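Quick one: co-fold with nicotinamide-adenine-dinucleotide.
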Amino acid sequence: MKNSSSSRIAGFHKLSVDQRVKALASFAQLSAEDQAHLLNTGNLPADMADHLIENVVGTMNIPLGIATNMRIDGVDRLIPMASEESSVVAAVCNAARQCYDSGGFITSMSGTWMIAQIQLVGVSDPEHARVRILERKCEIEQLCNECDPILVGLGGGFRDLEVRVIKTQSQTMVITHLIIDTRDAMGANAVNTMAETLAPRIAQWTGGQTNLRILSNLADRRLARARCIWRTQDIGGETVRDGMISAYHFADADPYRAATHNKGIMNGISAVVLATGNDTRAVEAGAHAYAARRGHYGSLTRWEVTAEGDLAGSLELPMAVGLVGGATKLHPTARIALKILGVDSAEQLARVIAAVGLAQNFSALKALATTGIQKGHMALHAQNIAMMAGAMGEEIDQVARVLVQSGKVRLDWAEKALSELRSR
Ligand code: NAD
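Sure, here it is.
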C-alpha cells in the first residue's frame, strides 16, 4: 500500500474490513465521514458480510418493502421485496387487490431438478461416445449420489442422464447433462461438485477430454408456474382488457418490447429472490434464456380472454431458488423474509415468486394500456428527486407534492421548491 494511487494492492484480501476501508480511503480520498458510513453495515454484521464475498468494505442497503393482498393457492401471504426501484411493490399490491376477490393466484411447479453440464471434446466418434456415456447411467447415478449423501438423505440426488451432440464453430462436442433433484437448495454447488467428480470418468470412458463442468442456469426442469383470472369488471372494462392483450401481443412479437416487458416481470421476481438471499443473476439468466427458447425472444407471460370474457394471465419460467445454501440461511434479513413468507420448501418459494412476477406484469400492462407508466411512477419518483435536491424529513413530501402538481418532476424545480420552502 505504498502507492495510494495504484490498484495493485498486495494482500488486500488478507486485511480486516477496517484496514481495507483505510486503504480505500487513501486511494479514493474518502473523508472520515465516508469511511464511517462504509463501516456502518446496518443489519448485516461486517463480519458476516466479510465471509459472504471477498474484499468487503461495507454493505449496500436497499429498501425492503412488503407487498400486500397476495392470495396464492388459497393462502394469504405477505411478500417481502428488496428493490431500489419505486412503484415495484405498489404494482404487486395493486394487481393482487384486483384479483383477491376472484380467488387470487394458482401456482404449480415441474419439480426441483437442476442440470449440470460436462463438456467433452476431442472425440472422433461423438455419436458413439454419446451412447457409451448413456450405457453408464447406473454407475453415473451412484457416483453423483455419493457426492452428496445429505441431499440423497433428504430425498434428492440423481434423477436422469441426457447426452447431446452439438456442432460448434470449432468442433463437434458431446455434452452430458446430469439431472439432479436438489430439493430445498438452489443446487449450484451441489451439482457442480457432481459434474467435477464425474468428468474424469467420462474422459476415460470415451477417450476424449473433458473441459467445462458446471450447472446450466437454463433450469427448464425447475419451472414455476402461476395463473390468475382478473374479472373484466374489476379491472376497468373491456377496453382496458383488450389494451392489455394487445400490449402482450406486441411484447411477444417484438424483442425490443419483450426485453422491457420481461424486465418488468423481473422487477417483482428479482425483488423477492434478493429479499430471500437467493441468486438474482441465476434466476434472471434462466428467465431470459427461457424466453428465447424457441429461437425468438418473446414474452414470459401469456394473456388471453376466457370464455366468460375475463382476463387470464399465466407465467412459466425456470425458478432455481432455495431455502438452504448461498446466503439464504446466513443473511439475517433473508431469514426473516422467509419467516414472513411462511414457506416451508424451495418449491413453495418458487411458486410464490412466479405469482409475484405475474402480478407485476399485470400492473405494468394495465398502466401502459391506460394512463401510461409515468403517472404511477411520478409520485415516488418526485420524492427521489426531492431527496436528490437535498430535501430531508417532511420536506421530501412537501417538495414532491409541488413537483407533481406543477407537472415538472425535475431536479432544478426541486431545488427551487426546496429553497422557497426553506425561505418561508
Ligand atoms: P450449498 O452447497 O451451500 O448448499 C446445498 C447443500 O446443502 C446440498 O448439497 C446439501 O448437501 C445440503 N442441504 C441441507 N439441507 C438441504 C435441503 N433441505 N435440501 C437440499 N440440500 C440440503 O448451496 P447450493 O444450493 O448448492 O448453491 C447455491 C449457491 O451457489 C448460490 O449462492 C449461488 O449464487 C452459487 N452459485 C451459482 C452459480 C450459477 O448460478 N451459475 C454457480 C456457482 C455458484
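If it helps, Residues 148, 150-151, 154, 156, 182-190, 215, 217, 279, 282, 322, 324-326 surround nicotinamide-adenine-dinucleotide (CB under 6 Å).
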